[in-house]
Design brief:
alpha+beta, nine-stranded mixed sheet, binds FE2/S2 (inorganic) cluster, 25% helix, 501 residues, eight-stranded mixed sheet
C-alpha cells in the first residue's frame, strides 16, 4: 500500500481530550493545540495565568504533525535579505530570538523531563559551488553580523554535496508529537486546561476581553485570546494580505544505519529541499522535503512527490524503500518574519501568532515567549520586530506580487470545471463541476456516493481546488482548507463549505 502518513503520526498517537460542553470563563484562551498554542500555554501557565487551550481536532493533528521538525536559527529567506528589508539591528534581533527559541525548547525538555528524542546537531546550508559562491559569502557575512555561530566548512557530510557550505553548530531536532504530548502533561500540572474537538465559530472582542462561540454554542469568556492557528481565524483581512500559504511535500525513505551523518540540511535550489534523519524504532529514515508551491495552485500534487522522489534518488544512492509520504502548509510572510502580537483587527485583548515561514518549531517558541511577556505586561525587545501591524517599504514588491496572485484566482469563477460530468469523478476523488454560473465541489466517496458543496470559500469567496494527495479542498487565496466532506480544517475560514442537496 502507498505510504500516506507523516512519520510522527505513524509512530506516536496524537492526544485527545474532552470537548468543551458548557460555558467557561478564564484569563487566557488559546485557540490552536499545535506547538505554538501549547508553548504559549506552557509559558503562561508556568507564570501563574489561568489558561484554557482549545483545538477543533486533536493535539498536534494540524500542521505540527506535518513538520520535519528542524529546530533551527537558519532563516530560509536568508539573513542578508532580512537585513535588506528590516535593517542590521533587526536582523540581529531576529537571530537572537531564533537562538533563544532553540535554547528555550531544550530548557523545557530538560527541566520538565520530556522524553522526545531531542538532540543538538549541526545545520548545513548547501550552495551550488559555481553558481552560488557569492551567495555563500554574502550569507556568511550577514550571519556573522547578526551574531550567529557559523563557519564555512570545506565540505558537507553528504556524499553528493561535497563542496563548501555554511555550517551552523548547535541546531536541534526532536520528535514533535512526543514533545507535544509531554507538554500537555506539564500544562495540566501547572493548572492549565486542554479541550479538543471544540471548534471556534466566532470571536467577539469587547472592553473587558473577548467571547469565543463554539460550534456547539458553548461560550468561552476570556480576558485575553491568543489565536495560534496556522492562519489566524480571528483576523478577517489585515494579516491575510501580508502572507501567503504554501504547500510543501515530504518523503521518508529507509536507509542503511549511519548512511547519512546526523544533522539538518538545506539546499539553495528553487524549489529548495530540506533533509534530516530519524530512527523510527525499526528503521533509520532519511526525511527529504521540498517542492513547495502556493496552496491550491497545483493541479497535480502527485507530480510534486514524483519530482521530490527523483531528486532524492539523484542525490542519495542507498535509499531502500519509501516508508512515509505527506504534505504540509507553511505561511510565508511577505517580509520574511513572523507576525506575533496584538491582532490588528481586535487590538484590545486578542493576539495572533502566524507567518512561520517554514520554521515552525522556533517560531512557536519565540512566539510563546513574546506573547507571554505581552500578556503579563513585561517588556520584550522583539515586540516591534514581530508586530503584526508593521509595514515595510522594502518588501513592497513581494506584497504586490502576492496581492496580484490572489486577485488572479478570481478568474476561476469563469473557467470551466475540472470535469465536465460527475460520472468522470473516480471513487475517493473530488473535482469542480460547472453548474450554470456557479462552480460545485463534488466528492465521490469510496462507495460511489456523491457529496456536493458550493466551491466558494466562506472567507473571501475565492474558488477552492481539489487536493488529490491530501483529499481536501484547498483555497488558493489565503490558505483555508476543508476536508473532503467540506468541513473546515484550516483558517482563516471559520465555517464549512456550504452543502448542496
Ligand atoms: Fe481567503 Fe479562501 S482563504 S478566500
Amino acid at each position: 500500500m502507498e505510504p500516506t502518513n507523516s512519520i510522527w503520526k505513524s509512530t506516536v498517537r496524537t492526544r485527545d481530550f474532552t470537548p468543551v460542553t458548557s460555558d467557561i470563563s478564564t484569563e487566557v484562551c488559546i485557540i490552536g493545540g499545535g506547538i505554538t498554542g501549547l508553548l504559549t500555554g506552557y509559558f503562561l501557565s508556568k507564570e501563574g495565568k489561568q489558561v484554557v487551550i482549545i483545538d477543533d481536532g486533536k493535539i498536534g493533528d494540524g500542521e505540527t504533525c506535518r513538520t520535519t521538525a528542524h529546530i533551527t536559527n537558519v532563516i530560509d529567506d536568508r539573513y542578508y535579505e532580512i537585513e535588506r528589508i528590516h535593517g542590521k539591528e533587526n536582523a540581529k534581533l531576529a537571530a537572537e530570538s531564533q537562538t533563544a527559541a532553540i535554547n528555550a525548547i531544550e530548557e523545557i525538555i530538560n527541566h520538565e523531563k520530556i522524553d522526545c528524542d531531542f538532540k543538538r546537531v549541526n545545520g548545513y546550508l548547501l550552495f551550488k559551488p559555481d553558481e552560488d559562491a557569492d551567495e555563500l559569502q554574502k550569507e556568511y557575512e550577514a550571519c556573522v553580523r547578526a551574531g550567529l555561530q557559523i563557519e564555512i566548512a570545506e565540505t558537507s557530510p553528504l556524499e553528493s554535496f561535497n563542496y563548501p557550505c555554511l555550517k551552523f553548530p548547535n541546531q536541534a531536532e526532536f520528535h514533535p508529537l512526543k514533545f507535544l504530548n509531554g507538554l500537555c502533561e506539564v500544562i495540566l500540572k501547572y493548572g492549565g486546561k486542554i479541550y479538543t474537538n471544540s471548534h471556534a465559530e466566532g470571536i467577539e472582542e469587547n472592553d473587558e476581553g473577548a467571547k469565543i462561540t463554539l460550534a456547539n454554542k458553548s461560550v468561552i469568556t476570556a480576558k485575553n485570546v491568543v489565536t495560534a492557528t496556522n492562519s489566524p481565524i480571528s483576523d478577517y483581512l489585515a494579516i491575510h494580505t501580508k502572507q501567503a500559504p504554501y504547500r510543501t511535500y515530504v518523503i521518508g525513505y529507509t536507509i542503511p544505519e549511519n548512511y547519512i551523518a546526523e544533522g539538518l540540511y538545506w539546499d539553495d535550489a528553487d524549489p529548495y529541499h530540506y533533509i534530516r534523519r530519524y530512527h523510527d524504532g525499526e528503521d533509520e529514515i532519511l526525511i527529504v522535503g521540498g517542492e513547495d508551491h502556493k496552496t491550491g495552485q497545483e493541479d497535480n500534487p502527485e507530480e510534486r512527490f514524483q519530482c521530490l522522489d527523483e531528486w532524492a534518488y539523484q542525490h542519495f544512492s542507498q535509499l531502500k524503500q519509501m516508508k512515509y509520504k505527506w504534505s504540509g502548509q507553511v505561511m510565508e510572510p511577505v517580509d520574511g518574519l513572523s507576525f506575533i502580537g496584538k491582532d490588528p483587527e481586535n487590538e484590545k485583548h486578542c493576539y495572533i501568532a502566524t507567518g512561520d515561514s517554514g520554521m515552525g518549531m522556533t517560531h512557536a517558541a519565540y512566539a510563546g515567549i513574546l506573547l507571554k511577556d505581552m500578556i503579563c505586561g513585561y517588556k520584550n525587545p522583539w515586540e516591534e520586530l514581530y508586530n503584526p501591524k508593521r509595514k515595510s517599504l522594502w518588501s513592497a514588491d513581494e506584497f504586490i506580487k502576492e496581492g496580484v496572485n490572489v486577485v488572479a484566482q478570481f478568474v476561476d469563477y469563469i473557467t470551466p470545471g475540472d470535469e465536465s460530468n460527475v460520472k468522470d469523478i473516480k471513487n475517493g476523488e473530488g473535482a469542480l463541476i460547472r453548474d450554470g454560473l456557479s462552480k460545485i465541489a463534488v466528492y465521490r466517496d469510496e462507495s460511489g456516493t456523491l457529496h456536493k458543496f458550493s466551491a466558494v470559500c466562506p472567507h473571501l469567496k475565492c474558488i477552492v481546488q481539489w487536493n488529490s494527495s491530501e483529499k481536501s479542498w484547498d483555497c488558493p487565496c489565503h490558505g483555508s482548507r476543508f476536508d473532503k466532506m467540506g468541513n473546515v480544517i484550516n483558517g482563516p475560514a471559520l465555517s464549512n463549505l456550504e452543502k448542496i442537496k
